[in-house]
Predict the structure.
Amino acid sequence: MGDNQLEGVDLDTWGKWMLEAIKKIRTQKQRPSAERIIHAIRQHHNFHEDVIAEALDQSVKIGTVLKVFNKGQSTYKDPGGVPIRQLNLAKTSDLSKVIVKAARELGERDGSSLKSIEKHIQLTYELDIPPNIDLSSVLRLSTKRAIARGHLVKKGNNFKAVEEVVSSARKKYDSPKKDQKFDFNSTLIKVCSFLKMYCLC
DNA sequence: CAATGCGCACCCG
DNA sequence: CGGGTGCGCATTG
C-alpha cells in the first residue's frame, strides 16, 4: 500500500492531508468540496491544484477518502468518521438498497459499472462473505431487483441511481414548521438565549 | 480579501 | 425525535 507516490509525496501522506483538510472544513460547517479541500491543502503545501485534485482522486480510489453525492454536489468525507457497518450476506441477501446507495454516492453522471459499485461496497462496509457465496452474483441479482423497483436504471453497462422523486402526495404531515402554535419549550429556549446574550453584554 | 464561525433549515433513520 | 449536514451570512484576521 505504502510506497506509491505522487509528486514525491507518499499517498498515505496525501491521504492524511486530505482527511485533515476535510476535518477542518467540517468544523467550519462547510461542505468539503474538492475546491475547498484543494484550497485548504494549498495553505500548507505548495502544489498545483491539479496535482492535489489528482491526489484526491487517488485517495478516493484507494478508500482513504469517501466521495459521496449530496444535494447535487460532491462531498468528501472521512470514512473513519462513520463507523463501518457490518454486512453479512447469504445467497438470498437483497443488497438492492446498498447498491443504489453506492451508485448514488459514486455520483457518476453516466452511472457506474458493477465493478466499481462492488469496489465501493467493499470499501464502505465490512463484508462477511461465506466461502460458498459469490459477491458479484449476489450483487447482480440485487441489481435486477433494484431496477424492478425503479430505484436503479441501466445505462449501457453501467447502473445509475434513480433520484428520489419525493412525490407531492403526502407533504403536509411532516411539515410541522407551518402551523405551530405556542411552543413553550422553544419559547423558553429563546428567552434563555436572550438572557444569556443580555448578560454577556 | 481570505479564513473562520455559526444559526438554522433541511434531511434521514 | 436525535443527530448530521451545509447554505448563507456574520465575524475575525
